[in-house]
Amino acid sequence: MTQTFSSETANAFARVRFIMVRPSHPGNVGAAARAIKTMGFHDLCLVAPRFPDVLDLPEAQSLASGATDVLAAVTIVPTLHEALAPVTMAFALTARARMIGPPPCDIRVAADISCNHLRQSNNKVAIVLGTERSGLTNDDIALCQRICHIPANPDYSSLNVAQALQLAAWELRYALVVAATLPLLPVTDGQAEAGSEPATSGKIQALMTHWEQAMVAVGFLDPEHPKKLMPRMRHLFGRNALSQDEVDMLRGLCTAMIKTARKQ
């Protein structure tokens, strides 16, 4: 089932902008469009991309795969100033520690700050990412309110820009969904099949009787010396909260075991 957001939550998602500064690889732009759509966002902005027609290039179209609507709606501007014009809180995503600049935080903290900031209906948040080769400049970072890091292997912390954007989008989605008390797992509107309902105690006990008979029939259980086999079997099946279908399946196995043992 497609998760349905309230108008308030949907509005919060609409007020998050992802900004790629001077992207050079069309494939990363397409992958970025797909990344944010999978997390429920739609606002992607490019600052001075290497190729003016980047949105129409085959690699961008191919890697957008299913998110060509987001790709088609991309905003392209010549400067980061213009990209940030409607934004009230911007996070500069970088892998490097900076001696000067805004205060740093990790991406999860940034997501929580963003979630609280978006409670005000006029506020807008941006995640800013730099070029594939060199990241953001100090001048770029100076335009943002916070520096943001993705905790990674300190010996190799450089993420592909589209991958970094995906992680940022996921953290933002998680924070917004939790704040709105929406389900984190897929749900279905359909009713569960009857056989998937938990088996009753009576059915479980009948299974255990049948199971014991089957183990005796195949010679696995010696009724004269049962030791603790059956209590352990009861604990085993009890831990697994069997459904009605599972009990029926195991009863069928017991019947087949007994029939086979009799033939032999």
TrEMBL record:
One of its GO terms (biological process) is tRNA nucleoside ribose methylation. It catalyses: uridine(32) in tRNA + S-adenosyl-L-methionine = 2'-O-methyluridine(32) in tRNA + S-adenosyl-L-homocysteine + H(+); cytidine(32) in tRNA + S-adenosyl-L-methionine = 2'-O-methylcytidine(32) in tRNA + S-adenosyl-L-homocysteine + H(+). This is tRNA (cytidine/uridine-2'-O-)-methyltransferase TrmJ. The lineage of its organism: Bacteria, Pseudomonadati, Pseudomonadota, Betaproteobacteria, Burkholderiales. CDD domains: SpoU-like_TrmJ. Transmembrane segments: none annotated. Belongs to the class IV-like SAM-binding methyltransferase superfamily. RNA methyltransferase TrmH family. GO terms for molecular function: RNA binding; tRNA (cytidine(32)-2'-O)-methyltransferase activity; tRNA (cytidine(32)/uridine(32)-2'-O)-methyltransferase activity. SUPFAM superfamilies: alpha/beta knot. Its main location: cytoplasm. Residues 16-169 form the tRNA/rRNA methyltransferase SpoU type domain. GO terms for cellular component: cytosol. Keywords: Cytoplasm, Methyltransferase, S-adenosyl-L-methionine, Transferase, tRNA processing. The keyword Methyltransferase applies. Catalyzes the formation of 2'O-methylated cytidine (Cm32) or 2'O-methylated uridine (Um32) at position 32 in tRNA. Pfam families: SpoU_methylase. Homodimer. Its EC number is 2.1.1.200. It comes from the Bacteria. It is found in: Cytoplasm.
